[in-house]
Amino acid sequence: MTKHPSKLWLLGPPAVILLTIFAYYAKYSWAREWVDDRFPWIADNIGSHLPALVVDLRGKDPNARLYGTTPAPARIPVRVPVKVPVEPPPVPPPAFVPPTFVGPDGTVDVPKLAADRAAWPKTVALKKAMEFPAVVNGKVVGKVAVPPGTEANLVSIQEGKLGLEYQGGGGWIAVEETDLAQRLQH
Questions:
Q1: Burial annotation 152-175 (CB, 10 A radius, 16+ → b, else e)
Q2: Which of 43, 97, 106, 109 has its CA 20 to 30 A from that of 160?
Q3: What confidence score (pLDDT) does residue 78 get?
Q4: Is residue 126 packed enough to be buried (19+ CB in 10 Å), middle (13-18) or exposed (0-12)?
Q5: Half-sphere exposure of residue 20, counting CA atoms within 13 Å on the CB side?
Q6: Is 143 in contact with 96 (CB distance < 8 Å)?
């Protein structure tokens, strides 16, 4: 019957490594600087409880004579102003200029307007009286005379004329007989 060795021996090598690292950290300034630069939480939690290391201000570590090493001269932290490149402000996109459908002489470019349904006004006002079919329950029952200034819905533009709808009845009218040019300029 053989006795199995304890599995605690597996903790030995990592414990020796950690102990060695701690000894170097506690004893040598170069090790402490290297660790503190990379792991500030170690400086706060462990280094703050250790005695301060004596560093010769002439750039020599008192431990250097023991091991024949020449450490780097003591570092003095210096704040160097960092120039942040200033980017020019972004160029704003050109201001949206709505397409103009009215020429300098006040005439409407009807084919151009007909191609851009989103630019149409919903209604136009009549400049002169017009007759529309009178519609009741979807049936034409007569005619309605509409006076100037009355607004009618713009539903179509074809062959240079405007298709208007007024209370269910429709009709075609010339562009000049409405205030379409004035509405497009506003």
A1: bebeebeeeebebbbeebebebeb
A2: 97
A3: 64
A4: buried
A5: 6
A6: no
Q: Please state, rounded to an integer, the average pLDDT across all residues of the chain.
A: 81
Mean pLDDT score, 28-55: 81
Which pLDDT belongs to residue 69?
Answer: 54
7-35: buried (b, 16+ CB within 10 Å) or exposed (e) per residue? Answer: eeeeeeeeeeeeeeeeeebeebbbbbbeb
Q: How far is CA 2 from the centre of its chain?
A: 72
DSSP string spanning 3-23?
Answer: PPPPGGGGGHHHHHHHHHHHH
In the numeric block, the tokens 């201000």 are attached to 57
Give the CA angle between residues 57, 58, 60 to the nearest 5°. Answer: 90
Evaluate if residue 67 carries a pLDDT over 60.
no
Could you report the per-residue pLDDT of 124-167, keeping only the tens digit for each?
Answer: 999 999 999 888 888 888 898 999 999 999 999 998 899 999 98
Structure tokens at 166: 């007024």
Question: ∠ CA 44-48-50 to the nearest 5 degrees?
Answer: 140
Q: What size, in residues, is the chain?
A: 186
Could you tell me where the beta strands, DSSP code E, fall in 75-183? 123-125, 130-136, 139-146, 151-158, 161-166, 169-174
